[in-house]
Design a protein that fits this description.
By secondary structure, the protein is of the alpha/beta class. It contains 13 helices and 24 strands. The protein has helices at about 25-35, 50-60, 100-110, 130-135, 180-190, 210-215, 250-260, 280-290, 325-330, 335-340, 360-370, 405-415, 435-445, and strands at about 5-10, 15-20, 40-45, 65-70, 75-80, 90-95, 115-120, 140-145, 155-160, 170-175, 200, 220-225, 225-230, 245, 265-275, 290-300, 305-310, 320, 345-350, 375-380, 385, 400, 420-425, 450. Strands 22-23-1-24 form a four-stranded mixed beta sheet, with helices on one face. Helix 5 links the parallel strand 10 and strand 11 (about 200). Helix 3 (about 100-110) packs parallel to helix 5 (about 180-190) and helix 10 runs parallel beside helix 11 (about 360-370). It is globular. It starts with a strand and ends with a strand. About 55% of the residues are buried.
């Protein structure tokens, strides 16, 4: 099967403009799920059609829900209440989306029908024990395939249920070994079908989109610091229909904002971008490293704040990203490595071992990518160190993305600063999160070709 590559030319002028970004993937997944569980029509405006979100949308169609899509970003879901899902007609294909698989595993573990979750070659290598163990602890019937190299670890496909007639999931008190929004959300969704409360504690607060949305929809949920507790609603029609204008994805905006910071004579604004405090690690890191940035809050939608973000070319300096800041910027670490590549001194990324079990081993791939551009980087067990090259062009490179959308987009941004053409191989994966990535960069002044 032919794959697509990018040919990235060195930028000849600055990148300038005000652009939208795709709707937030994390919020979109959760909005689709809760719309399916609502009683009546819910409208999701600004849907971006990234492949990950489309996988979740198609999963509910597979379970018999009517989903109307105008093709222009308005998705209307005809929800049937908490007990309205039907057994899927075929195995549910989650594609490359770990979020789809982990969240649906929690939701489906409370159903009285059987289901199977599968995905592409990358997803079927990713660890699922982190959700299987606590879901089994509350009575879910859930099995996976043994991991080929890690004893006691499970991978997809996941075989789920059915729960016996008349049986519900048990209450749960659980301390998450590591902060994870996907695990937390999976367990909260399963808690909608439990016979008692679900109480979860994290070492550090991870993304809280599920909690915010449940609270906005008047579900009995309460958070205190890093502890969240959900009581199952007594009424299967407790979730009322809603409308949401999906905010732009800050993780997608990060590639444009970083490009603005490191490409000379640049200034970029991203519009209607999510500003959830549990997601703004990228903003804090850019500022910490000396980036010129301005944010302007504009409103909220279902408890999710949004606004404009502007970044201009900046003189950057190295620093240390660790702890809570690493948790809030975990998905943006690849593009933050590009920022570090143009900072003076050394930048250290610590407490990011989770990157080894994403779509790829992102720590290993980022070290290889940076070195290909002539930037010295050192791999560590839970992170990496980057020795910046703040002046002069980088070395033109040929990069294999490994099928990882964030690696591919980071390579394209660094290619704008190279001394010749940069080739990025296997970039079809970019469509999972930012289908218009190339077009957006072109609109800002970049010269990029797409070749098959």
């Amino acid at each position: 099967m032919p794959t697509t590559r990018l040919v990235v030319n060195p930028v000849r002028g600055g990148l300038r403009g005000s652009v939208p970004v795709p709707s937030d993937k994390s919020i979109s997944h959760r909005a689709l799920i809760l719309a399916a569980l609502a009683s009546g029509h819910s409208d999701l405006r600004g849907f971006s059609y990234g492949e990950d979100n489309v996988a979740t949308l198609n999963a509910f169609r597979n379970m018999g829900l009517v989903v109307d899509d105008d093709g222009q970003g308005l998705v209307r879901v005809q929800g049937r209440g908490l007990n309205g899902l039907s057994a899927p007609r075929t195995p549910i294909d989650c594609g490359n989306s770990g979020t789809t698989m982990r969240l649906l595993a929690g939701l489906l573990s409370g159903q009285h029908f059987a289901s199977q979750l599968t995905g592409d070659a990358s997803l079927t290598r990713r660890p699922m024990g982190r959700i299987v163990i606590p879901l089994r602890a509350r009575g879910a019937i859930l099995n996976g395939a043994p991991h080929p190299s890690k004893p006691n670890e499970l991978t997809p496909p996941l075989e789920i249920g059915p729960l016996p007639d008349g049986k519900r999931l048990s209450p749960l008190e659980y301390q998450l070994p590591m902060s994870s929004a996907q695990v937390k959300s999976s367990l909260l969704l399963s808690g909608l079908y439990a016979s008692g409360p679900t109480t979860l504690a994290e070492p550090i607060v991870s993304r809280d989109h599920t909690e915010r949305m449940m609270e906005a929809l008047a579900l009995p949920i309460r958070t205190v610091g890093s502890i969240v507790s959900l009581h199952p609603p007594a009424d299967p029609h407790a979730i009322k229909p809603f409308s949401i204008d999906l905010p732009g994805d800050l993780s997608a905006a990060a590639f444009l904002l970083t490009a603005a910071a490191i490409v000379p004579d640049s200034q970029i604004t991203t519009r209607h971008t999510g500003l959830n405090p549990t997601r703004t690690g990228i903003i804090d890191v850019i500022r910490m490293l000396g980036g010129q940035m301005a944010t302007s809050a504009q409103g909220e939608t279902l408890n999710e704040p949004y606004g404009e973000i502007t970044v201009a070319t900046s003189r950057l300096r190295g620093g240390v990203i660790s702890g809570e800041l690493s948790v809030r910027s975990i998905d943006e670490i690849p593009i933050l490595c590009a920022l570090a590549a143009r900072a003076s001194g050394t930048t250290e990324f610590c407490d990011v071992g989770e990157l080894r079990v994403k779509e790829s081993d992102r720590i290993a791939l980022m070290v290889r990518l940076l070195r290909a551009f002539g930037v010295e980087a050192t791999e560590r067990e839970d992170g990496l160190a980057v020795e910046g090259r703040p002046t002069g062009p980088l070395s033109a490179a040929r990069i294999e993305s490994g099928g990882d959308h964030r690696i591919a987009m980071t390579a394209a941004v660094l290619g704008l600063l190279a001394d010749g053409q940069t080739i990025v191989e296997d970039v079809d994966c970019i469509a999972t999160s930012f289908p218009r990535f190339v077009g957006t960069l072109r609109a800002l002044g970049a010269e990029i070709e797409v070749l098959t």
